[in-house]
């Protein structure tokens, strides 16, 4: 059995007994029942994930998957692919957006070259390159089926390594010029949307490029005819290496009973692939923000996730996941540090 | 000139020169321009408030205003007023929801008895009681015009004290059984909504009580006929002492050029009063979350604020403000800790 199959088989259910106990404590805290909303939902989910009614704050790790996209030849992005190569070293150097926000959240950042077009020149970036960017999917599949499976498995391996090193919360992040295009294509195929409905401005394209991008996405789907009932086929034909890597992170997190905090639009495309490969993995996903990318809310709704932050962010990298991690920690402090009605001598 | 008038007169504009410099730095950080959304907007706003292009993280203080409401006689709440009295000592004891989340955010909590029905038995609660709860506004005004002005001035005084002690960010919070009713009434009058549009479930009332509550709000407005062009009249006739206190906190923050982080529905009612007393104070408000109280989004839109958190919270106390404070700190770290294109030797 392959690592991918084994990982999917390993994914279990949330622990209802622990959640019942956590719910009892939440109801006894000195506040109207349910009045802390998503903070209470988060503690319940963590209780179910860890099978621990009083989960504690532990190590947090954000994994940034970096990959490039042959489709940029078609002029779908505002930036050239060299930006991916230039940005990768900035993550371990601690000066990228996610580096700053991860530090704020007390999380580490691990950057992975899973498919950057040029060599990445920094020892702090994990070299797990499958190939130097996907092929131009306007002319054929983005990658082979084997490469797609490999991208999922690189994600699984890197995530498992972080968990072995003690991480109890994983966050996903992406770096890859052009990667809203495959993310939109994945949503169109798996969510049943038209190309126009799923196409957005990415890092900031104008109206003309936007219209072109929607046409390209239509063409990509028409040429490759991905099978919507086969998520690996969709990933291979219209996806991306870093998107496969992110899906792998989420599957590994679920298999090892650790929450996977899903960042923005690209991470959500990975989450959608993971959800279709293993529907039980959805229980282990924690959504973070609704990005400025116009189809992000539809993507999250397609998976069944509801974002807690609405900050018009569209940087990716795991920046939204980092902010959500600070809120997860807050939710656990609520469980441990608020008084109960019993503490105050009240029924 | 009264303290209230003096405070309103003192409120100035955001410093555009500082904001221009901050915007330049934001545009040079290694990310697409504007891609950090609200994080960038926050740094810009703080730059304008402090007149400092590189604002730093400093002391943060949340002020919880506690008051009771004569209107609870009409059966508008799921909880009895004694809960206000019982909850007040929990803030300085550090075991209430806002105590936990403020600690998480590195903020202090100051609880103020501005109008709790019974004596509050804890030395940590500031006694600034104007009277033991408002009068039943279904039978006449909630308070006199003098008492309304006094509630605003207590807020101004307490906030000014926190600023003198070094706070550079203030958060607002409320404690008061029954206080969604005056908040809804204020929104109906100042925002031009019908009672049904502004009435919500507060801490958790059922359908029957909800219908009764909307009728009570209609009656309260009909009996008292508050003048929508006179915010003090609205506060006096259909408001609350803690709502006046919160409006005062916001006015003082604006006068002293400090951001006021606005919590949920009740704090937003205070913010709406402040906005109508001094429209320039809006520039100094930082919205936090959109609460589960159904009219909260309409309230924020009426003021011109857009919430960054959407967590179905409805506890009040300043819990949403505390979470927003962690995001404000994150925004300042972005400004200071991310590399610029120049740092990387790029144009």
Overview of this protein structure:
Two copies of one chain form a homodimer. With 347 residues, chain A is α/β, with parallel strands linked by helices. Chain A folds into two domains: 3-55 and 333-337, Orthogonal Bundle (5,6-Dimethylbenzimidazole Phosphoribosyltransferase, Chain: A, domain 1), CATH 1.10.1610; 59-329, Rossmann fold (3-Layer(aba) Sandwich). Chain A is 49% helix and 10% strand. Chain A has 15 helices and six strands. In chain A, α2 packs antiparallel against α3 and α13 (265-277) packs parallel to α14. Chain A is globular, with a radius of gyration of 20 Å. In chain A, 64% of the residues are buried.
Write a brief structural summary:
Two copies of one chain form a homodimer. The first copy, chain A, has 347 residues and is α/β, with parallel strands linked by helices.
């Amino acid at each position: 059995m392959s690592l991918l199959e084994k990982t999917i088989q390993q994914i279990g259910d949330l622990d209802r007994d622990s959640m019942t106990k956590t719910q009892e404590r939440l109801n006894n805290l000195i506040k109207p029942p349910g009045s802390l909303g998503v903070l209470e939902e988060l503690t319940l989910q963590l209780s179910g994930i860890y099978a621990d009614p009083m989960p504690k704050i532990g190590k947090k790790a954000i994994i940034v998957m970096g990959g490039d996209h042959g489709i940029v030849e078609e002029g779908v992005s505002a930036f050239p692919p060299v930006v991916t190569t230039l940005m990768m070293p900035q993550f371990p150097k601690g000066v990228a957006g996610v580096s700053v926000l991860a530090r704020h959240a007390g999380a580490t950042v691990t950057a992975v070259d899973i498919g950057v077009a040029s060599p990445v020149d920094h020892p702090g970036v994990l070299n797990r390159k499958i190939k130097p960017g996907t092929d131009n999917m306007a002319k054929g599949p983005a990658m082979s089926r084997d490469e797609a499976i490999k991208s999922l498995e690189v994600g699984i391996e890197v995530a498992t390594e972080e968990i072995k090193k003690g991480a109890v919360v994983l966050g996903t992040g992406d770096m890859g010029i052009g990667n809203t295009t495959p993310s939109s294509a994945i949503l169109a195929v798996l969510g049943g949307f038209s190309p126009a409905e799923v196409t957005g401005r990415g890092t900031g394209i104008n109206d003309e490029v936007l219209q072109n991008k929607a046409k390209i996405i239509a063409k990509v789907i028409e040429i490759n005819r991905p099978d919507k009932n086969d998520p690996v086929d969709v990933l291979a034909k219209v996806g991306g290496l870093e998107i496969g890597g992110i899906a792998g992170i989420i599957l590994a997190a679920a298999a090892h009973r650790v929450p996977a905090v899903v960042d923005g639009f690209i991470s959500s495309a990975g989450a959608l692939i993971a959800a279709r490969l293993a529907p039980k993995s959805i229980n282990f996903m924690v959504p973070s923000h609704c990005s400025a990318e116009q189809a992000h809310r539809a993507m999250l709704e397609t998976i069944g996730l509801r974002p807690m932050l609405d900050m018009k962010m569209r940087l990716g990298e795991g920046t939204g996941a980092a902010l959500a991690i600070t809120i997860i920690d807050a939710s656990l402090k609520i469980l441990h540090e608020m008084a109960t009605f019993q503490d105050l001598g009240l029924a």
